[in-house]
Amino acid sequence: xxxxxxxxxxxxxxxxxxxxxxxxxxxxxxxxxxxxxxxxxxxxxxxxxxxxxxxxxxxxxxxxxxxxxxxxxxxxxxxxxxxxxxxxxxxxxxxxxxxxxxxxxxxxxxxxxxxxxxxxxxxxxxxxxxxxxxxxxxxxxxxxxxxxxxxxxxxxxxxxxxxxxxxxxxxxxxxxxxxxxxxxxxxxxxxxxxxxxxxxxxxxxxxxxxxxxxxxxxxxxxxxxxxxxxxxxxxxxxxxxxxxxxxxxxxxxxxxxxxxxxxxxxxxxxxxxxxxxxxxxxxxxxxxxxxxxxxxxxxxxxxxxxxxxxxxxxxxxxxxxxxxxxxxxxxxxxxxxxx
Length: 339
Prior knowledge:
Elements: E1 2-7, H1 16-28, E2 32-38, H2 40-47, E3 57-61, H3 72-78, H4 83-93, E4 97-102, H5 106-117, E5 127-129, E6 131-133, E7 139-143, H6 153-170, E8 177-181, H7 192-202, E9 208-213, E10 225-227, H8 230-255, H9 259-267, H10 269-278, E11 287-290, E12 295-298, H11 305-321, H12 323-331
């Protein structure tokens, strides 16, 4: 039985989305056991009338909630009875619990995970790795996407190693193609950080490094892992997601602008629905925090039930694959860099 904690408060659609997502995940995975953290009375009320295996679902009472506007260090220190911190502390203290999922404050989650959970031996800094779909029907992971604004080449090499193992072990990608986010594809492009990282990745045999990538090629399908500092990676992911959403809005506006367009849209209704689902980030789960001692998955704050279900599925598959142990083993092959 794989046990996973679900922080049920702090997101835009809490506790409805985490509870419904948890029940859906239980139905699909008979060896999954979930622990929901949050206000017990509110969670029991949300569960009323729903059908689920009560032997595989527990409620952990945690009456406080960490808001997204709270200072992460203060929240971690002062709100030990919050749904998020209760989950992190239980994850640390209970050997039989594999991981956790949260749609709450990103800053508090990262701070809490680093302070309370710690890192996999040899890892300098954990990094976020969200997943996006590509034009050829594959997936691409972006590592890092916000956990580390300032990095060194050693950090970026570890991001490449961790994300490669993640894509191969959790998503079944054979020898993931890894690229470095840069301002041009040529090897000499970019600042000193990017140039040094380029050379370091070339000297990392366990990483299938294929060179630099310009941001416009993110969804091309030519790459499976994009290595970036947290600032650049975050901008890349949010710009891509935002552009997709705005294009869908413009397409809808244009369709309704003329009768002939409406008639054409009726004939292409199924195709439009498929494209909408393809560009919907809710279908691809959350951003995993690679490098922590136990599995941590951060869902979008606006995650609905289906997205939370996908986040739980990510945590479940990461544990099944033994990803943390494989990361530790691979990192040990390389020289240890001090932060």
